[in-house]
Amino acid sequence: MKKLLFVIVVASMLLAACGGAPAADKATEVTFMMWGAPEELAVWQAVVDDFHTANPSITVKVDVSDWDSYWTKLNTLIAGSTPPDVFAMDAPLFLDWQSRGALMNLQPYIDKNPGFLDGFYPQTLTAYKTPDGYYGLPRDFQSIVLFYNKDMFDAAGLAYPTADWTYDDLLTAAKALTLDKDGDGKIDQFGLWTDTWDMELFWSEAIWAYGGEIISEDHTKTLIGEGGARDAWDYIDSLYKAGVMPSPTTAGEYGDDLFQSNMSAMTTIGHWAVPGYVQAGLNFDVVPMPTGPVGKATSVNSAGFVVSKDSKNPDAAFEFIKFALGEAGQKRLAELGFAIPVLKSVAESDSYLKQPGTLNQKVFLDSIAFARTKPVFKGYEEWAGVVGDGLTPVFDGDAELNATLDEVVKAADEILAKNK
To answer: Which of 9, 29, 147, 178 has its CA 20 to 30 A from that of 215?
Structure first.
């Protein structure tokens, strides 16, 4: 009997050593932090619940915060050596986080799952690729398009925008749609509103469409003051000078989004704005970005998953990421309506294309054909602040464009130099 007991114990130990024992079923909790609107938590909880059903031994705890609170909380947790296992990453900020050694290299896990990335849109992967492999993976992505308020166009007797529009057409329509409805000397309806502080929503698209570039390939030189880029800035400045777009200071007085508050006939933005516009009861649709002197351009940016280098549960963390990036997880995320799934099979299926409403979802996908990835480089956040803050006085009417742009480029190059 003792000999039989000994054999059973040894057999159990050998089974555990081979990875087939209940050790794999040990209860594990994975913490996942992200930014987003409160309503996103419900859909993410559904993803988490689906994952738990498929992986009963792993529980994922989701923490959703607004953008500003998210980064403050994340930095505090990492400084205190209590980071979340998985957290969301904005692609342009990725290299800053990766270079400071905060992230785990996911390449060994990817290598163990051949073909895992085959179905992704390739533009979404480039931001997270390093010489050592992937330290992050895209979760979803955005392409920037032109939104227009159909009721405002109808009231003005104007034809809706088309895919053939040029930037001159945009300015012409914006002039016709800028109105002082009550005659009090103040604009009640602007033809266009968009954000020109960061590059994503408008000025990167305009620069590329005018034949310019943003940054050199080796990330050592700021190019926004050269050639076609300067022509694009002249165009943007003309929108402000024509009064068809509110100055940054004026726009700030009216809130975060003048299109959503029915004060602008057009805007350029990504899919994340759609749920809010639907909820606001707007009658709107979308077309691709206008064509510039050298062609059409838009930007692609993604939100991604990263795993903390100090995660205590890296295997379980990657299992969750793998599920969220698989077909089941991506279909759930398509229900959010905030972004485009990174899996082509899901983005091109009814799960994404046939969301409630009449919005032409295909425009976002068609725009990928002329999209460029939003630049990702070390020092991005500080560089973007120098450019955005530096040019705001120009668009507020308090500074001259060309001299200010020269100063901004010089200051931006200094940021790049210290982040080599």
So the answer is: 147
